[in-house]
Amino acid sequence: MKEQLYTIPVNDAFDKDCECPVCFIYESLEKDAVDFTLGPSYMEDDIRMETDKSGFCTHHMKQLYKNQNRLGIALILHTHMKNTTKTLEKMSKSSSPAKKGLFAKKETSELPMFTQKLENSCYICNRVNNVFDRYIATIIHCYAHDDDFVVKFNKSKGFCTKHYGILYDEAQKTMSGSTQNKFLNDLNTVYFENIKRVTDDLAWFIDKFDYRNENEPWKNSKDAVQRTILKTNSYFVENE
Length: 240
Fold this sequence. Notes:
By secondary structure, the protein is an all-alpha fold. The protein is built from 11 helices and no strands.
């Protein structure tokens, strides 16, 4: 299959020596979204309206803070706080007092519902997920139409558990017949074989702390903890 623009990042990710190429795709999108948020875009009114409304999850707030653009994050947070406070003040004044009595019907006011919604809202999550879904579909498309990609897929180091499940679900929704069966069989093979490989490496890492194995080689276990975290939590641990 002739490589198209939307397939390039997918093929690049599967060319990486990585325990989960889908995690690599997600992390790349995440980095681009953080850079975009604190780039010149934060001065644009339409972008600021979105960040004011959505805010950021704790994970992405940490990433924004690490970016070192203190002025950019200050401007974004300032208008976000003003917008949030204005909304909450209005809700707090319009909220009805709690009804008393044994048989009084309890009603949930819009104020706590608003704060709960805000807690689960994030501009960067929204931006990343809108694009990420397309790349999951692209992986399925490449597998179904590109024999070279199938070889690359089967030679990969597998996937983290989260993205294994996402790919499995997408295949069940969008594939059918022998193509679906072949994809799911290959997906299961690369996932379970590589999970076992990393699990074995982790077991040897643990065994190395037994004094009886003190003089034994580390084999492939020195970074087993970091690779296991990627497999189980979809998180790249930075090298120390």
